[in-house]
Give the backbone structure.
Amino acid sequence: MFDSAMDDFVNEVRERSDIREVISRYVTLNFKGGRYWACCPFHNEKTPSFTVSPDKGMFYCFGCHTGGNVFKFLSLIENVSYFDAIKLQAERLGIDLPSHKKTAAELKLEQKQKTLFKIMTLAQDFYHNNLVKTAAGETGRKYLEARGITSGVIEKFKLGYAPDSWDALTKALKSRGFDDRYLFDAGIVSRKQDGAGVYDRLRGRVIIPINDINGNVVAFGGRILGEGEPKYLNTPDTVIFSKGKLLFGLDKANRAIMSADCAVIVEGYMDAISLISAGIENVVATLGTAFSDNHARLLTRYTRRIILCYDSDEAGQRATIRALPMIQKAGAEVFVAVVPDGKDPDEFVRKHGKAAFENLLKNALPFFEYKLQYVMSHADIYSYQGKIRALRELLPVLAEIKDVMIQTEYRQKISAALVLDENIILDELHNFLANAEKKLNQKINPIAEKPEAQENILARQAGSSIIKKAWYEGDVLSYVLGYVPKEIFLTKHREILSYLEKCHEMGKHPNDLSAADELSEAANAELSRILASYPVNFSAADDKAYEDSLKVMRLIYVKSQYENIRREVEESYNSGDEAAYLEKLQRALEIQREMEELKFA
């Protein structure tokens, strides 16, 4: 996967990475029984089944079977590629990324991105100068002034104005040597219907540049002045812009978010700009798309306390309800600031000022409080069926509350709000939890539904013990695979054994980096489980378990051979081939004797 310089870089990052320290940034770890434990950040659970073994540099969840090394954890929690996780950790450790020879495709993409970044920067300057320096920009300046947007904020965000012209920007950029193809790829022009040329996508609008986390201009949003639709228009996704992966203003707000240890999320960039004009700087906005898991993971790099402050109309409330569990799942503490009187944050802060808005944030409702209010406002609480429907909407949130005292308090609140006996609520909660656990078990243990489940469980236990031995003592592989054919192992174990064979043949010791590179997701997670489940040092009991495991796998193999030979005996008997019948019968008896010996060994 890497050249030698890159190998050295990755090894240095791994050696300097304390997996316990890295993971504890995202979850609270508790030491018990020689390992660190936590509730898994990758699935919902009440009892901790997520374990970290610093001595092995591995993590594994016994609930959802996710596992791997420190880079695998970062790639999952940050929603980035495996190599981007390595780079992220290197950046945190202050380790420089080595240069490497790029492929032709990489160089071509890099050059295109550089060109698009340059085009977007020039377009930003064009729009900004139109706003602040031209008579045509007077319309935009008056609009921003009326919304309380100060000149300082105009400069900070490089706000601009697109003249009401079909080709003003196109002409300006073409004069700088850029052709239609690049302007189209940047998303700032549209093609004419007849295909003969392009025209400016944004016209007669106040322009809001959209930056990536590094501050590069990657897109624009345009707010129409006066009547017309759409009110807000973004440039489309491109090779440098994906609206589902960016939050407006994060490049400027990240330090304020870390300083306040809190992020405020609003729906639109004008809401964010208005709040920043009022002096509230730890605010970001979505970009005309629904809040996503990507957004949640992006924000939790900077804080674990997030306040949603969407419009208080019905659409805003629904968007809030959808976003809340995503943020909670990402491991953040989530609250909702309710803007009164159906107003949006922009209108509220302009009318009432910074102190009043900060008071809204101070009194933001916890997730459950908001959900309770929302459900109650939409429920038919005058019928028993309506009450039960409302209760069942609340149960998933109630089930997530792990503090017994807080959960009891909320059960009492539901009881009072729905006028339901608390025992009914408790019974429904127990039923919900039981059903959820059953579904989870069916999902993560589908093997239990099969007739051969017991044998598969034995094969998994035995295969795990053998793989653990082979991981640390590769020279046992030739004996193991001579005694038990690889094909008899479970699919994931076969893949791991093939990897270990390859390492042994090359004279290399297996390691988590090469395993992550060569194994499938499922096999890598299984390997993580095995390494996390067993101690590094072998005891006499471990050696005995390894020997017993070989016998278990041999017995499974011999049983499969016996089934095959038994069918052949029947076929030869039915065909009247006496010689073949006697030969195969003799072989069947030999296999049967070995089966008996293995059973009682």
Notes: The first strand starts at residue 30 and ends at 32. The mean pLDDT is 86. Residues 119 and 173 are 8 Å apart (CA to CA).
